[in-house]
Write a structure and sequence with these properties.
3 domains; alpha/beta; four-stranded mixed sheet; 434 Repressor (Amino-terminal Domain); 358 residues
């Protein structure tokens, strides 16, 4: 039966039953589509193909694992987000993770559990506990105190799948567990397409915090603790003291921009982190934030200057190329998974990619 998948795909496109009826040329009624979603009826092959085309998903997707669901969802948002848009993001995430798991399966690769410390989830009763949780996580992953060059790749190396989806609203990040019919649950972090690199990295670290900590049932504390974890994970105390100093009474924008490049964090996050560590007195933080607002750094679309490049998790693409090279999937299937034309796929397989800046 296709009910769950059909409803998820329709939610991902933001279509009503009547809108989907119109998009398939009124081949069946909205009432009939509703019956398909409730598993009260099954469409014929022609209607099923029309539904897949209209929803921009594959036939295989609609016929896929109907029991695959997201559980334990935590998400980061800037403003109130509609349930409809959150449903769209979840549906797109499920679509992406199924493709990911399919490639792992054809290659005979296990979907490893994420590499969490034995003590995790760390109990958090106050914000200082979030600092300690970030420190333990870094120690468990043998990261030392150096800045993290590519956080998306690091998370994938540690068994957390990173997915990028487009969203009409400001859902910056989402962490969840994917339960499926076969195999162990899979941990994922979803981030919004188009985020500046510094915001993307903070969202990834924020969602890692949700996964790594168990916070008292206080929504405000949960979000503040995840923010504190993200700052501490990206900017360890020892590294900040070494590069900024123990106590500062002033700092210039050139230095702040240089620190942004070093740690891969926004100026705003750097100011907060320096305040948390007592490097900046409250008066300096307040003055910097006033100047930050005056310069328009809090406002979309530009926010602050010197944006960092987005980090793109590359493991899924690498697995697709490997599966194609080993004959585990066909060219059309690889092109579908990578969302590129077959001609472009052939070019990529035959020609070396140009090196950035040359």
């Amino acid at each position: 039966m296709i009910g769950k998948r059909l409803k998820l795909a329709r939610s991902a496109e933001g279509l009503s039953l009547r809108a989907l009826q119109a998009k398939i040329g009124n081949r069946v009624t909205a009432q009939a589509i509703g019956k398909y979603e409730r598993n009260e009826a099954l469409p014929g092959s022609g209607v099923l193909i029309a539904l897949a085309d209209a929803l921009e998903v594959s036939f295989d997707y609609l016929m896929g694992d109907q029991n695959m669901v997201l559980e334990g969802i935590d998400f980061r948002r800037k403003r109130i987000t509609s349930k409809k848009e959150l449903a769209r993001v979840q549906a797109k995430a499920l679509h992406l993770i199924e493709r990911y798991l399919m490639v792992e399966e054809v290659l005979g690769l296990p979907s490893a559990e994420w590499h969490k410390p034995r003590e995790a989830p760390f109990p958090v009763h106050e914000l200082a506990d979030a600092d300690r949780a970030a420190q333990y996580m870094r120690e468990h992953w043998n990261l030392g105190i150096d800045p993290i060059p590519n956080l998306a790749e690091l998370l994938e190396e540690r068994g957390i799948k990173v997915l990028i989806v487009d969203s009409e609203e400001n859902i910056d990040g989402l962490a969840a567990q994917v339960r499926r019919s076969r195999g162990e649950p899979v941990r994922i972090i979803v981030i919004r397409l188009g985020l500046a690199g510094e915001r993307q990295r903070f969202s990834l670290a924020h969602e890692l915090g949700h996964m790594a900590m168990e916070v008292a049932p206080d929504e405000r504390l949960r979000e503040r603790a995840a923010h504190r974890f993200a700052g501490a994970f990206l900017m360890p105390a020892e590294a900040m003291w070494s590069n900024v100093g123990r106590r500062r009474s002033s700092i210039g924008w050139s230095e702040l921009l240089a620190l942004k490049q070093l740690f891969g964090a926004s100026i705003q996050a750097i100011i907060y982190r320096c305040g948390d560590l007592g490097i900046f007195p409250a008066s300096l933080s307040q003055r910097l934030f006033q100047e930050y607002s005056r310069l328009g750094f809090r406002s979309a679309p530009d926010y602050e200057p010197n944006h960092l490049a987005e980090e793109k998790p590359g493991r899924f693409d690498r697995l697709c190329y490997r599966a194609l090279a080993e004959g585990a999937i066909s060219e059309p299937k690889a092109a579908e998974l990578l969302n590129v034309p077959v001609r472009e796929l052939n070019r990529r397989m035959q020609e070396p990619a140009p090196i950035a800046g040359q």
